[in-house]
């Protein structure tokens, strides 16, 4: 039985009834990750990319005390321009619903809602992680424990070098989260195809990724998996170009005392300004790339489930 707070968009309701593959998409990337109107244009392009690859997109957000699984055109427009939208993670999802506020879901909250809606795969840009200086600030994204708890496969382009990538990988290993690089050995670093760190696991096909998620569940292991899909080569920003920008944004955040959930949006916004939009074009390209892989993995999970039921 589906939860009574879930409100499915017509396209998603139809896909569920027909047993089609669905790919969840997050909304914090729209409200706190990109400026208007590029955010809404990018969200529409990502949805179209999922459709073009044989699955149905479900962008998730909170409005009017309901969990929206798929947004209508009007809802997406409203969300993309609204001010004071809450950035929701595990901690504040229920509070936002109780207060009837508008909320955008982070990776963690999108995983929770996707799982409630029976969606296995979620495609996005970058995940949160262990921030640099976390040994003092304790700033570790709630995305990481969520990956250990909720059985959704998350397709991302790795994590940004605004984070401490070695510590992020250590945390995920401790928490029992499979970190899979797609089609290469290295853990990708969002704008760069490689972080210079090896990923713990490598897979080269949607078939393997789907089988691993289904086997995880069948073994009784809770949690999902993180699939890191490198940005297409033509859209990459070289590390020596992006690194000084990251350093400047981090220094400004420290000087201004930015803390808690404001840290990631502040850094994303400053990096966008400092690269004069170049980071945004790359960001959109990598999300599209993840939407394609997400659609393929979602279709593969449906096919393997159907084969198991025979
Ligand atoms: N990293 C990105 N782009 C993003 C985010 C992170 O490169 O848009 C967003 C995602 O919604 C992610 C959230 O779940 O920020 C993490 O925020 P925090 O670091 O406050 O946990
Ligand atoms: Mn944080």
Structure description:
- The protein is α/β, with parallel strands linked by helices.
- It has helices at 10-18, 28-31, 38-52, 73-81, 93-99, 107-116, 134-137, 143-149, 165-175, 206-218, 239-255, 263-274, 278-309, and strands at 6-8, 22-25, 56-63, 66-69, 86-88, 103-105, 121-123, 153-156, 179-182, 201-203, 225-228.
- The chain folds into 2 domains: 1-119, Indigoidine synthase domain (Indigoidine synthase fold), CATH 3.40.1790.10; 127-310, Indigoidine synthase fold.
- The chain contains 13 helices and 11 strands.
- Strands 1, 2, 3, 4, 5, 6, 7, 8, 9, 10 and 11 form an 11-stranded mixed sheet that branches.
- The longest helix has 32 residues, at 278-309.
- The protein is globular.
- The protein binds pseudouridine-5'-monophosphate and manganese (II) ion.
- Manganese (II) ion (MN) binds at residues 139, 141, 261, 263.
